[in-house]
Amino acid sequence: MTKERTCFGALVLWCFGGPGTGKTVLASVIIDHLLDTGCPVTFVYFDYQNQTSQAALTMLSSVLRQIVSTLDKIPECVKNICGTQDGEKGRLILKRSSS
């Protein structure tokens, strides 16, 4: 099953369903097609068994990394809100707010 909606002015495709129903295959085909047409795309795959990957900061870090990877230089504002994780050189990790 899929849902399509607009979120902050961007089109969002949300695929959901039980294991083995083809969500990953469907999403991969759509993502590949959009990338081939030059359309800017960010995406996140979730593993229902890996709760850590479903954390908001992890998801946002992944999306931010995908956006920044298209730029020639990392903006200072991004550097200010990101850190690195030991053993994962170059990976953008959003810092937890102290407030």
Automatic annotation (TrEMBL):
The keyword Signal applies. Gene3D superfamilies: P-loop containing nucleotide triphosphate hydrolases. InterPro entries: NPHP3-like_N, P-loop_NTPase. Pfam families: NPHP3_N. Residues 1-22 form the signal peptide. The keyword Lyase does not apply. Keywords: Repeat, Signal. This is Nephrocystin 3-like N-terminal domain-containing protein. It comes from Apodospora peruviana.
